[in-house]
Amino acid sequence: MSTWLVTGAGGMLAQDVLGRLAAQGIGAVGLDRAALDITDPDAVRRALRRHRPEAVVNCAAWSDVDGAEGQEEAAHRVNATGPRHLAEAAGETGAVLLHLSTDYVFAGDASRPYAEDAPTAPRGAYARGKRAGERAVLELLPRTGHVVRTAWLYGAGGANFVRTMIRLEGERETVDVVDDQHGQPTWSRDLADLLLRLGRGALAGTVPPGVHHGTSSGETTWYGLTREVFRLLGADPGRVRPTTSAAFARPAPRPGYSVLGHEGLRRAGVEPLRDWRAALAEAFPCLVAAERGKSRERHATRR
């Protein structure tokens, strides 16, 4: 039976990847940070030699965008050096590597979707590290390396913007949300399904190596997304008020426009992810249940 290895197994996306692999009857090993530190080359090599996976899905990442500004060296080890170690070990064992990256590798100043081969221009420590990780995978694994860029990820298995807005709807009369950043809200379960399709295609030789864009179709702003969250909750979307990025100054720069194109997937015969609204509507019951369960835990802890 084939085996896939998933790093960063404690995270939201990895949980969905492991769940979808199990649902498809594909053998999988999930390794969280305690079980595998991808910044340790010897540990990475031992893990791949032990499990001999056909495919590796790298969900391990430093995801604290603002924290990376003050700890760039540490973030670089996880987001750039770690993928290099995985690529080296995958090359030695013959495994296909699916490495998760981000829309932040682009400048974020475009006016139409970025193609897979559009010039990158990372701004900020987090973005520089992620771009370096992409380069390592593509250079070391020219025939078996796959970089999958995603963005605005949400799901039931972890903290994220959508779950936060679900909580704030019950706590505040109005919510101010940025309306000058454009992107693609993406359900982690949809992305997990795409990763399985890409991995299977890569193993079968039908999906070429390189860069793929794993985001939902369509686009919106954080403000537009929050209005949709309120609508799905049965709340008045008028309680959501638009504001600008300047009102929420952060250490790391945010892209103003980071919508990703999907022509590369179509050329490879892979169907891109569905429209973000359809995905959010299907995901919503489990998101509400997860967030309200977390709220009950918080209230119980305070007693």
Automatic annotation (TrEMBL):
Its EC number is 1.1.1.133. The keyword NADP applies. Transmembrane segments: none annotated. It holds the Pfam family RmlD_sub_bind. Keywords: NADP, Oxidoreductase. It comes from the Bacteria. It is an enzyme of class 1 (oxidoreductase). Residues 5-284 form the RmlD-like substrate binding domain. Pathway: Carbohydrate biosynthesis; dTDP-L-rhamnose biosynthesis. InterPro entries: dTDP_dehydrorham_reduct (IPR005913), NAD(P)-bd_dom_sf (IPR036291), RmlD-like-bd (IPR029903). Belongs to the dTDP-4-dehydrorhamnose reductase family. NCBIfam families: rmlD. Catalyzes the reduction of dTDP-6-deoxy-L-lyxo-4-hexulose to yield dTDP-L-rhamnose. PANTHER family: DTDP-4-DEHYDRORHAMNOSE REDUCTASE, METHIONINE ADENOSYLTRANSFERASE 2 SUBUNIT BETA. This is dTDP-4-dehydrorhamnose reductase. It comes from Streptomyces sanyensis.
